[in-house]
Amino acid sequence: MKYVLVTGGVVSGLGKGVTASSIGLILKACGLRVTSIKIDPYLNTDAGTMSPFEHGEVFVLDDGGEVDLDLGNYERFLDIKLTRDNNITTGKIYQSVIDKERRGDYLGKTVQVVPHITDAIQEWIERVAATPVDGKEGPADVCVIELGGTIGDIESMPFIEALGQFSYRVGAGNFCLIHVSLVPVLNVVGEQKTKPTQHSVRGLRSLGLMPNILACRSTTKLEENVKEKLSRFCHVPLENIITLYDVSNIWHVPLLLRDQKAHEAILKVLNLKGVACEPALEEWTSRAELCDMLHEPVRIAMVGKYTGLSDSYLSVLKALLHASVACRRKLCIDWVPASDLEIATAQENPNAYRSAWSLLKGADGVLVPGGFGDRGVEGKILAAKYARESRKPYLGICLGMQTAVIEFARSVLGMEDANSTEFNAHTRNPCVIFMPEGSKTHMGGTMRLGSRRTYFQVVDCKSAKLYGNRSFVDERHRHRYEVNPNMVPQLEAAGLSFTGKDETGRRMEIIELPNHPYFVGVQFHPEFKSRPGKPSAVFLGLIAAACGQLDALLKKGTAKSFVLSNGSSAMKLHLNGTTNKLANGPLVGIYYNGNGLHA
Fold first, then answer.
1. pTM of the predicted model, to two decimals?
2. What's the pLDDT score for residue 354?
3. Which residues, 6+ apart, have CB-to-CB distance to 301 below 8 Å?
4. What is the CB neighbour count within 10 angstroms for residue 301?
5. Catalytic residue at 461?
6. Measured between alpha carbons, how far is 357 from 367 in angstroms, rounded to an integer?
7. Catalytic residue among 477, 527, 547, 598
């Protein structure tokens, strides 16, 4: 097993996650099997109880693991399925060591950070690295490890020590350290400054780790004299200094690495040059270029609670991007704070109220993502009401589906106090209730989590057609409240169709309004399984409906014929599982394989 460690210096937020994902992608393109591990030095056992404002979205895995959003980047770039153990936290490590101590596994020894914590870290890495994540048997060839935080953080010291020991134990030809650092440009002098990176590398070396490759973040490409200076002071070969400058979209980052021969430097350090081939990134390159060429916009109003931090909805944004590229549209997100749509805001802040409603009404489609707590819920209900009555394409995810059900009960069934028991425990019409298996005393890991199966109840519905007319789908969940099954007959009689249910038939998974152009709600989180070139079915449906392409997409049921508009010319694609040339358009072919449109 070969290991690539990605560390960060100077400041946080440099893009270590995207860098680690891009390294994994380019190594995979060289014909190697790749797995990934993210180390988060915080004391939390997992990301499940952390606020999105604190740490961005909580990404959910097939096995129910609630993990750091960087694992979402790994899955999207590498098209793999990770497990909860691929996210290591200080809390997990200390918990495992304390559990061993309580069992008496240390035979009376004094349990210390060195060697017991550091040994536990190394054992965890070796065990998880050997677990296949790509659907094939046997371990991967390379494990990419990202160490969260910044070199010098006190909470990461045990991991630094463990990784120093680990690099020595596995040997020089099996370990490659890539240090991501900042080379700022001061406006006063207009010069790229190397001193922050020099200090960062000096700190790394003082802790026992020697970088093999420097990945330098900067607004522009590094000048040759700057690279020479970094090479001289950081003791890194000139050809191993890579510039990660700002690009139009993150799909270009692996191409930056390839163009600067980063793969050759990594393969040389790991003694893999005779095993790997040249990176095959033609499809990836076409997709990155296609994304840059799109100009005709599709506007989606994102009605959420955490709109102040886009990372709170990172996977939703990526799923929308995947779908918009498949429909050849430039994605434009209009952020609408849900609470700004409420009547109370009209009195307290009229400008914010008018702005929110203007954005909502000006959008081509409406998306209400998941969330917790009662802030902004009435605004989400109003957004669902507007989309239903104005026949504007709507997609509700998790809470977004529940608020759509509440709105329908209030407006169509006349149940004025219809609500979720999460927001009103004493409502006379509880449309959404607490799940019986949930815990009201413990928050972490007690929701309905991970991959669950949804069975389609209606053959001739939009969601079933978008999923390729399959009888069931497996999607990831994260919720502790559900639609009240006792109210389903009343809702269905009034015209709300529950087109997807779980295996018992008692848990509602998908709702639709049959006579609406596109009004879909899902209890699961489809964004977590969306991939570049393989967009999530319901996101594809939303974008297609928002830009007038849904009827063509659904025309034959299995979406094998699709008409795309390219400004002045129209292109018709017959999609039968093979790449087809565009009749009158540039760049690439697009094909459909049952999971989505591929560019």
1. 0.89
2. 96
3. 334, 336, 359, 360, 362, 363, 365, 366, 367, 383
4. 25
5. no
6. 14
7. 527
The encoded tokens of residue 74 equal: 């790994």
How high is the pLDDT of residue 372? Answer: 86
- Using CA atoms, how far residue 98 sits from 40, 122, 568, in Å, is 19, 16, 66
Low-confidence ranges of the chain (pLDDT < 50): 557-599
Torsion-angle region of residue 108: left (phi > 0), alpha (psi -120 to 50) or beta?
A: left
Single-letter code of the amino acid located at 497:
S
Strand pairing category for 430-434 and 419-420? parallel
Asked if 306 and 52 count as a contact pair (C-beta separation under 8 A), the reply is yes
Task: Dig out the tokens for 202 from the structure.
Answer: 């000096």
d(CA 333, CA 20): 27
Is 525 labeled as catalytic in the residue annotation? Answer: yes
Long-range CB pairs of 134-139, under 8 A, 24+ apart, other chains included: 134/33, 134/34, 134/35, 134/78, 134/79, 134/80, 134/81, 135/81, 136/33, 139/1, 139/33, 139/35
Does residue 398 carry a catalytic annotation? yes
Q: 557: alpha, beta or left, given left = phi > 0 and alpha = psi -120 to 50?
A: left
pLDDT at 398: 96
β 481-483/472-479 pair status = unpaired
Q: Which of 475, 525, 547, 598 is catalytic?
A: 525
Query: Residues 398, 431, 461, 547: which is the catalytic one?
Result: 398
* Tens digit of each residue's pLDDT (9 = 90 or more) over 343-386: 999 999 999 999 999 999 999 999 999 988 889 999 999 999 99
Question: What CA–CA distances, in Å, run from 451 to 182, 322, 473?
Answer: 39, 21, 10
